[in-house]
Each structure stands twice: as C-alpha cells, then as structure tokens.
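Hey, I'm writing a tutorial for new members on how sequence and structure tokens pair up, and I'd like a real worked example in the thread rather than a made-up one. If someone can provide the structure for the chain below, I'll link this post from the tutorial.
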Amino acid sequence: MIISEDRGDRFRAIDGTVHSDIHDIWIDPNNTKHLIIGTDGGAYESFDRGNTFKMWMNLPVSQFYHVSLDDERPFNVYGGLQDNGSWYGPSRKTGGITNSDWKNSFGGDGFYSFRHPTKKEFIFSEYQGGNLVRYNTKTGMPKEIKPYPAVGEAEFRFNWNTPIHLSPTNTDRMYFASQYLFMSTDMGDSWKRISPDLTTNNPEKQKQKQSGGLTIDNSTAENHCTIYAVAEAYRDGNVVWAGTDDGNLQVTANAGASWSNVTGNIAGLPANTWVSFIEPGRFDKNTAFATFDGHRTGDMKTYVYKTTDLGKTWKSLATPQIEGYAYCIRQDLMNPELLFLGTEFGLYISVDGGANWARFENNLPKVAVHDMAIHPRDPSLVLATHGRGIIILDDITPLRQLSTEVMKSPLHFFELAPTVLRDPGAGSNWFGGSGNFVAGNPPAAAQIAYYMSKRHTFGKMDIEIWKDGKLLRTIPAGKSAGINVVEMPTAMEKPKAPPTNNRMALFGSLFGPNLEAGKYDVKVIKGKDTYTSSFSLVNDPESAYSEAERKVQRETTMNLYNRSEQLAYIYHVFGDIEKKAGAISGTAKGKLKKTLDQLIQKAKTGKDTLVALGGDFYVDEDERLGERISDLYRQVSVYPGQPSASQLMRTTRLDAEMNALQKRFDAFLSKDLAEANKALAAAKIPTITYNTFEAFKALDSGGSSKDGGQLYFDENLMYKGLTRSGMGQFWFLSWLNL
C-alpha cells in the first residue's frame, strides 16, 4: 500500500513491518491519520497516517488449511497458515498457550505440515505450488525435496494447496502429487511416480499462462487439473485414493499398478466437482468417505458420500440438517458410527453413521472447518479453521459412547478416563505484554459427563461428591437434554488464614492443594431419583516425582494447611470475643467493667501476636507465627516432590509453637472467658459465645479454582493491592512461575 498526501503528485510506502498482502483499509472519517488495515497477517492500526502501525496480536483469527498431530505429551499441533508459513505448537502449556509458543517450520503460504512418525526431528512442510521441504528442528535447516520431471516427461502441475500424505501403514512411506501421484520411502530424497495423469487433463482448463491483464497472472494458484486429495487406506497399504480439482476420484488396490476412476458411480454428483477430501474407513479397507466442493462454480450444495466396496457404489450422507459446502470428513478411531464433517459453516457430528447430523455449537462459531485430526492416544478432535485458527475439542469420549440405547435413557453416565492431577510448573512467558493472545488449556477439573433424554425443569437437582463415605462437596448439576459435562474442582478450598500485610504469606493463603489421587463417588440427585457413578484422580504418570516423595509432600502440606486453619480459628475467636466484650463494656460499670476490659486486652494481645499487620504491603514487611506458617505452606505445596530437610525441620518447629499457642488459647477460654461469663451471668447479661471450629470452617472462603494448581481471585482490596502494584506483580509472578 502506498499513500499520497498531495493528491497523487508523490507517493510513499507505509510502515514496512506490516504484512504485505493488504485486503482492506478503514480511514477514520473524524481523524484521517487514524487507519486500520486488514491483511493476510492480521489487523494493524496506525495513528500517523501509516508511517507506523501496531499489530493487534490478541485476535485469534488465523486461517489454517490443514492440521496434523504428533505423539508427544502433551501432543503438538502442526499446520499451515494462509500466507503465513507452517507452524507447530503445544496443545497444553502452563499458563496458557501464547503466540511465542508456536515455532516456524517454513514460510510462504503454509498448507500441509507433518512430523515424521519416528524420526522426530524432521517435519515435512509445504508451500504454494508444490514446493516441499524437509525441515530439521535440530539444525534449523530446511531441505527442498520437491519432485521434478525427468527428461522427456511432461511438466508437473501442482495445486496451490498440494497434498502431502504420510502412510498410516508404513512409517517410511509418504505421498506427494501433481497431476501424477508420487511415492517416497527415503523422506523425499527420491520419488517414484505410481500413477498416470489422474486428472481430466483438459487443455481448456490449463491456460493459466495466458491469464491476467497487463501482466501474466500465474502464481500457481491458477493451476487446474491437479490432484488435490490423497489418502492411503488405514487397513491396507496397497489401497490408495486420489481426488482431483477437476472432479476425478481415483482408487488403486495394487499400490498404483492400475487405477479406477469411480466418479461415474456417484449418483447425483455434478461432473467436474472438486474432490475436497478423502477419508478411508478406519475399520475396513473397502470403505471410504469423500466430500466434494462446487462453490467455485456457484454450487453451494453439500456433497458427502460413503462407499463400502472400493468405489463401485456410493451412498449420499448429505441431509437437510447440514449447512454449507463440505471441506472434510473424519471417521472416529473407536466408534465406526461416529462421523465428523467440516463445512463452510462449522462442524457437524453424526452418531449414526451419517443418517442424521447436528451442528456442534459449544463455543464453536459458524466458521469454515478445512481439516480435522483425531489423536490416536488422547480423545481429542483438532480442527483447522479459516477464521478462528486451531480449535481443540479436548475429550470426545461422550460422543464415542453415545448410541440409540443411551439416548433413550433418562440419565446415563459416560465412562471417562481418570483425570490427571497436574503438577504446578514453570514455562510461560515473563511479562509477555497486555496485547497478546493466550489460548486456554484443557480443563484440569474432573469431568462428570452424562446424557439426559429430557431437560430437568422442576424440582431440585444437584451433584454430590463423596470420598470414603464422606460428603466432600455439592455442586450444581447440568440440567439440559442431551450431553451434560459438569466440572468438579480438583483443588481443595484454600486454607483459612488470618489477615496479613506480608505478600509471601498472603500467597500461601490464596489456593488449596490438589485432592488426593483415588476414586470418588458421584451421586446425581434428580428430584426423588438418585443416579450413581464415580470418577478417578491420578497423579501425572509423566511426572518426575515418586509416590513416596508425594506422600511426604502431601502429609507436610496438609499438616501446614490444618495449622493455618487452626491459627485462623484462634485469631477469629480472639477477635470475636474482643468485639463482643467491647460492646458490653461500653455500658458496664465497676468490677464487671474491669473484668471485661481485662478480657478485651488479653484477647487483643493474643490476636495481635499471631500476625504482622504493620508495614506498607510493599517493602516494609514483618512476620509472626501466621506468616511463617502461610509462607512455608506456600513453599511446600507448590513443589510436588519431597520437601527439603530445612522445610521439614521448620515444620516441626512450627508444630511446637502451635501446640504452645493452643495451650494458651485453651487457658484463655477456660479461665479468662469463663470468669467474664460468670460475672455476666451474675449481672443477668447474656454471656459471650463464639463459633465452633466447624461453624468457622463453614464460613465463606472464596475457595480455589476448579483447576488444580491454579488460583481463584477474590474481589477484595488485599488481592487487588497484591496484583496491581509493580512489586506485587513481580513477586506474584515469580512465585507462580507463570
């Protein structure tokens, strides 16, 4: 983009750091120096008429063409972006997934990108017009491995979005395609052509070198009569499918020795309709699914088909429930009746083999879904969308278990894998800035999933969580017809703690520890009916900490947790008695007043010696018993392994101090308060009472978040003061490792 400020006599370029492909511009009518441009790289804003621009990094509006996954823990996501190269990034990361967590594997317009199944340092990435590289993540070097025609061989026609396909039956085999299909067994160092021209090879559709106006428009986006979709059968490596952008769907059952064009067997499909996707059946080598896209010629219909006889006959799976032309289809890895369909207007799901479809609307807009991948280990469905980037459905287990019988049940629990208790950890960015996008992680909360045939509209409905015969928590139930997923917090309530102006001590009272690993019983109370199930919590199997270390850590953590609550209770009772005695003392006289004033002073002294409330909550800080317990609780609870010898020694010392405090507190109640209450009773004045420990525990505490190891912030002045001062933020983030 160029700008003239003198009616065209002279032009200047705008800020050269913005993306070069600019598609839209808005000029503020009230301030012409204020510009916003929309590009292939995102949105930029300028307040000096384009001399400098700021990019809005917090908009999740990327356009992914394709997606693939690896087997790391957590798994990584690979894909190519419209005019923004090929990238890979983690599916989960402490503190959330930021833009900087994604790594580049090549440039250009990014399309397909796959990591080698066994040689994990290699990534195959492709950019426009059939340019293919093998990128080495260890050296950072890409090697161009595009096939070229031999002497006397016709020029290769590569689609703008040329397909790469890794064999599901042979880790050393991969495919690439022009109008021909190529196969390599040495990571692209050499290629074997295994097909004739599989397209219509219509010369009238190959005049791209004659296109354009004043100049030839031949960027390879204009290439036609090319192979667009390739897939090897999951059950037989000799069966390979290839679909073209000019309407041919070809299949070989003998590794390319002979090919059959089966498009003519598909009833109701207009000729020359673009083959947008092929999904071989996961359970049968003769089964395949295919989608076709005619929108480039004005045909907006949905075309999706299934064959069970290697293309001899086809059945349409399109129904009036589906909106938009189809880009891709996947069959589930475990349930053959579960299908996922990506269209121009979102994701559609069928649980009956395609007889009926429903659009998935849970936090997924009507955005184009160009590709999908199902993880073979984790029950995750990953979507490549045009407009909302990568979207992950973390757990499709309930969909896998949904059946006609289940949908007839008044309430049916789904069987879910155990919930992993995530250890706190480091790894996020340090002060990454306020304008960056941060993607959420899979939920750390335990999932309780059930299906109800009818919505619960009248009467009480709650979920009770039990452990070893003890009721732990009651949480609201999902009451909708269909699948309900309720999250059970895996962290305990934060410990009760007395107030403090010491920041590190305050950190220790902000969160509760994870619940214990083990089995938990679930009761859904629905009116007069009770439905029972269970879920399990397990420690992270990938963790470096042994069960023996965890046992010591948990025992120490819970001891300090209980000590914090014990101290908070003593502080609460001292304060309560001081307040109540003060209210009575104002009107009392003589000996009674003297007795009450002595009680008030002892309660105040006892309370004030427990915590440090002086200082400025910044650099002038002090500590007493309360701060020492909270800070040590913080140290021990955030590290999942064995506490240090010094920490264990300090715990023993604090235990002794708490035991001594408890004796003084008991003596205060049995002697000082008892004498004051005796005097009040003699004066026929109601005695001073205080909460039991159980009643004190029941007071609202705000609690920890549903995600283990994370924090829940109460809206009070102390937490705001902690997080809104520079030094407070520094220590806060330092402690969290976020």
